[in-house]
Structure formats: structure tokens, C-alpha cells
Amino acid sequence: MGITTIIGILNTKKPGAAAVPARKSFLMGAVLAALFLAGCAGEAPSALDPRGVAAAEIATLWWISFGLGTAVFLVVTGLLLYIVFVRARGADIPDKDAHPADGRLWIWVGGIIVPLIILVIFLFFNLRSLNALASPATPTTVTIEVVGRQWWWEVRYPDEGITTANEIHIPVGQPVQIRLTSADVIHSFWVPQLHGKIDMNPGQLNSMWLQADEPGVYRGICAEFCGVQHARMQFLVVARPAEDFEAWLERERQPAPAAVDENVRRGQQIFLGSACVYCHTVRGTNATGNLGPDLTHLASRRTIGAGMLENNRGNLAGWIVDPQHIKPGNLMPPTNLHGSELQALLDYLETLQ
Length: 353
Ligand code: CUA
Prior knowledge:
Structural class: alpha+beta
Mean pLDDT: 87
Radius of gyration: 29 Å
Low-confidence stretches: 1-20
Helix content: 40-55%
Bound molecules: dinuclear copper ion
Strand content: 15-25%
């Protein structure tokens, strides 16, 4: 409706200009509205499509607020229209000699009592949700530490000695404890389909819990502006049945597999002999840098560049050669390699399952 109104205003006849017929402007508005609304579908995770108990609680609170807000809007608009179109039509205009006390009832009821009742209802539902979100129904089974960095997510399982990046694996149907902090600026951790947002502040530890009720891959995003690549700071929450999750943990606990193939060995030498090792760790090798993501099981991850690109050989090659072209401002410098060196390095990285 808003868009058709804007189009209507734009189409207001200028002196000397021909007006666009109303039907045409309505059609243009409908097309534009459809285009805008098309952005609401597709990949974007919606907090109104909850897949976990906490997100369901938040979605319910949203619908209650929306319902109450709509009811108030309709009543106030109805009264306004009544005054404009019915009361103002002559006969019923209040006498200027009328006693001022005549309107007091409206002020007491419409201005104080009714708003008070509505606010108390809001308060009740808010407190109920706050209480429900404070702690999970059953104790958490897994603790995960997430560190926000410009612009990616370091993910640690302290009890397991596992460090990974941009992917959080959790067992489905169980609450897990998430401890959050930041290594640089303020970020905000948000998985819309599982829970609300929570800030990640440098030097401070915040805590929340996550629970997914269905197996699946849920998109997470940074919800606090944190620099030029804020919009490209994404992660995935992978919720899987308990036995799959245990198998994942077991695989992640292992150090990187030894390089057996000759080409892979060459790739490993290139990796260990280059600047890569100053920033990245590959457990089981001499690479122990901690400025960039741990690459021990890089090949098993779904994306590179914090959700930017699908993790495949071509994208990985582009990322290694010219990361600043793909994600300007990130900390990774370009790497200058001959074609065959790059291929060997890719061969090696692909073994890091
Ligand atoms: Cu991190 Cu926005």
C-alpha cells in the first residue's frame, strides 16, 4: 500500500504534464511491491519461522505484540475517522459553552486506564518470555565458546580440545551452552530461527543457550555493525542427531591426516614454508598461528570467508590468491604462487577433512 501511495504522489499531475492513469499507477505499484516482497522469501532466515523452543517463545511474543498493536491502531484510527467524517459534519459540534469537564472521562479512560491495562498485559507477556528464555528446561550438555572477529567466528569446544570456524555443530533436541566474547570490536551473535541476539563484547563473557528442535542447517549472522564486512560475517549452526554429532566430535578431535601422496606432500611443504603458518593452525604440523581460522579440518566445512563462498576448489583458489578482491578489508594477505604450486597447495588443503 505504501508503495502505491508513493507512486500516486510521484504521479501527481505537474503543470503541463500528462497524468498517468490511476490504473497504470496501481499496476506499477503492485509490480514494485511484488519485487520488494520477493526479498522477504528465499534464503533469509526469519525469526518468525522458529525451529527451537527459544525462538518459538520469541515469535509468540512478537505475534502478541503485533496483535495488540494492531488492535490499538484500528481503534484509534476508527475514532479519528469518526471525528473527521461524522462528528465534524455540523450538528454535533460541541457547544463552545459546554463544560470542560465533559471530556474528562475520555482522558481518564482513553488516556490513562486503557493504556495502563495494555501496558500491564505487555509487561506480563514480556516477563513470561524473559523467564522462559533465562535458562533451558534441561541442563546443557555441551559448552561452546564463540569469539567474534573481524569478520569471522572462531568456534571452540573447550572440553574436547576442538577449534573450528564459522560452523557450530550441536546435537538436535538438546540445549547447548554458548559463551561469547570478541577479540576486537563489538559483534552480535544471532541465529534467528533458534534464539534472540546477544552482544559479543571485547573483554567480557556473555552466555546464552541454543536448542534446535529439528535437524538442519541454520544460518547465523552478525547483528551489530562491526566494520565494512559486517554484512558478510555469517555462520552456520548444524544440528544433527546425537550419534552424528558424536561422530563429528570424534573426527574433529583428530589432528590433520598425514600427507601421503607426493603432490599432497609438496602442497604441505608450500603451506608450511609460506606466510600461512603465521596466522593459521593445522594441528599435527608446525603451523600454530592464531590470527586466522584453524584449518585442521578446513575441507569438511561448508563455506569459506564466513559464509561468503561455497567451499570448493575454485573458490578456495580465488580466496588464497586474492582474498582482498573477494572480501576487501579482511586480514588475509594475497599469496603469490605459480599455477602448479597453487594446485599442489589446493591438493593438500583438500585432504584436511
Ligand atoms: Cu561482526 Cu557485525
